[in-house]
């Protein structure tokens, strides 16, 4: 596997980037929705711009993969213009991801970045359930145990949410939790659905991304018109945009694409460490920027979540080899007895 051939330094680099992107994105998004001075921007336009940038980046990667502009044109004509069924198939995760991204903005407008980061790990059991139902895979006992442990940790974090002292806007933690619950469901379903589509054919990952992002742009534009259409006509599409908002859009655009590449070269244990480290960094940043007050229940829940992520990523034990070894031992014992 590619992940086995990659050097330790490269894996550490991947781990560092994954951690920084995950932690910085949530903290920066929280900052733009609660503390940053100036008029509040429209989150629907930010989601739409993110899809456009992802499409441009995917086109660049496909150009590199095909090796020439002529091959790029042929690939786009074949898989986009002459494949309406495939576009329709990829429109399903496009809609789901659009809902997920908008829910992330709503959740981080009402929940602290650290609380969000911990609670968002519920995507692990959601993805596990979708994997079992949609891909007919099985989970080990340890993985099921870690799933229940993670749910218990999130329950502790949400039992008495940690308070922030430097955020002056009115927040609704219940609305934030509902938003993140919807985002988690969307993340689990869309991720497994996209994986199933990828494995159903030999079509390039970047071609599939282009198909999905084209549908995503259409879906998010509809969301822009329906949700904020009148306000945007009055104030403008880029109303309220600051360098911080542009930074959030950049992280959202690059983060998703980079993570898909990183996953190819790392294993579940490294991804688990990355998620746990992102929780720690988000917590530290929340204490400094937002005046987060750490409680015993929050700390206990966060620790449980970090441990469960690590346990979930441990490789499955090969029971077939164990059973063969046991059988061989029994045969040897019988021969010795005879």
Automatic annotation (TrEMBL):
Molecular-function GO terms, alphabetical: pyrimidine nucleotide-sugar transmembrane transporter activity
Record has RNA-binding as a keyword: no
Subcellular location: Golgi apparatus membrane
Keywords in alphabetical order: Membrane, Sugar transport, Transmembrane, Transmembrane helix, Transport
Transmembrane segments: 12-28, 40-63, 142-159, 174-194, 206-226, 238-261, 273-290, 296-314
Membrane topology listed for this record: Multi-pass membrane protein
GO cellular component labels: Golgi membrane
Tagged with keyword Membrane: yes
NCBIfam families from the UniProt entry: nst
Family according to the record: Belongs to the nucleotide-sugar transporter family. SLC35A subfamily.
Protein name (record): Solute carrier family 35 member A1
Higher taxonomy: Eukaryota, Metazoa, Chordata, Craniata, Vertebrata
